[in-house]
Design goal:
Blueprint: E1 5-9, E2 13-18, E3 24-29, E4 50-51, E5 62-65, E6 68-71, E7 84-88, E8 92-98, H1 101-104, E9 111-120, E10 123-132, E11 138-140, E12 142-144, E13 147-149, E14 162-165, E15 195-197, E16 208-210, E17 217-222, E18 225-230, E19 236-240, E20 247-254, E21 273-275, E22 280-290
Antiparallel strand pairs: 1-2, 2-3, 4-12, 5-6, 7-8, 8-9, 9-10, 10-22, 11-21, 12-20, 13-20, 14-15, 14-17, 16-19, 17-18, 18-22, 19-20
Amino acid sequence: MSDELFSLVSAELSADVTRLGAELVRLDDAVGDPLLWNGDPAFWSGRAPLLFPIVGALAGGTFRHHGRTHALPRHGFARRSTFTLVDRGSAHVTLRLEASAATRQNWPFDFRLDVRHALVGPRLTTTATLTNLSDEPMPAAFGFHPAFRWPLAGAGPRSHHVVRFATAEPAPVRRLDADGLLTAQPRPTPVEGDLLPLSDDLFAEDALIFDQPVSRRLTYGGGDVRLTIEFPDMPHLGLWSKPGAPFLCVEPWQGFADPAGFADEITAKPGMVILAPGATRRFEMSVTLEFEAP
């Protein structure tokens, strides 16, 4: 039943969430205009996958822990795992993934990951709660990867869409190499103060990676239609599309791809958090639909 959908509704939004990956697969406004990408495989089959227990790629597709080598695919296994239902209502659903024989083959830790999607008026909030059930410290990363329509309905042409950060973002950005690993040399930021005009050229070299952003809030859109995206618990951010693709991924992360040449144990991987036995960590992202100019 991995394809089972849970439909949520508020006065201003409606959404569908699937057991597979606890993924949001539809988000529409009150008149039925879609805000979320539809997963057309001609461009990209994803919609809003959740990234766990790593974000991005590992060098050689493997990591080391206590001297042993383990393999994990890019962005981990949660997005390909079937979650179980914990609770649901007309405007919320909570789904759970727990360690199993299958996950322990490549991730030698016990864990519980609860994901709650909830609508309140014009806002969708997704909260992931990760608990370490192992008897040793557990390293982990977590990321959100929603793809929003570009252009948004009623927001004008693609060329008029921008990302505006909560504050100026002068720090350099990072890029990925051909193996999906973080390049050593930072690049000058394309953000002009707090404003990033969007264009296909930005994504000719894959994602823009903000490994030291100041902002924990941004707006995306054009004209008087915008999405305000808040990510108070997430210290990193990726923006990604494919040139010409009608979506923009706004990706708050805890963690990112291995730096090129990284060969240490996963506990030393930059961007990972370390949860003590029994400890819990929360990751949250909210998306609010707004129609008025700021």
